[in-house]
Write a structure and sequence with these properties.
The chain is mainly β. This is MoaF-like domain-containing protein.
Length: 103
């Protein structure tokens, strides 16, 4: 899948035992996510950089001031996220991406 085809499609981001998130890119400046276990969700104002035809780097600041940097490789199905918390800690997560199947 190329990054031109990601808009208005739902993707499953699976970070193993930590969290599973369904994420929809509305555009390069907005996305919607919902966390599968808790049901927490948010619309985020984002900045997306298209690194090439298969990869993006997306960043945003969550309501609690956590800074999120999300690397998505739609060709390989791999994703990396870095969360920067206000107390100075950083969390790195490695996971997978796949288009969400219609249930």
């Amino acid at each position: 899948m190329t990054t031109e085809n990601i808009y208005d499609k739902e993707f499953e981001y699976d970070f193993k035992d930590y969290v599973k998130i369904d994420l929809t890119f509305s555009s390069d400046t907005e996305l919607y996510w919902i966390e599968r276990t808790s049901g927490a969700d948010a619309n985020e104002k984002i900045k997306t950089i298209h690194l090439n035809e298969h990869t993006t780097l997306t960043g945003w600041i969550e309501h609690d001031k956590t800074i999120v940097s999300l690397y998505s490789d739609f060709a390989t199905g791999k994703t990396y996220v870095y969360q920067y918390f206000g107390n100075g800690t950083i969390r790195e997560l490695i996971g997978t991406i796949k288009p969400k199947s219609k249930e």
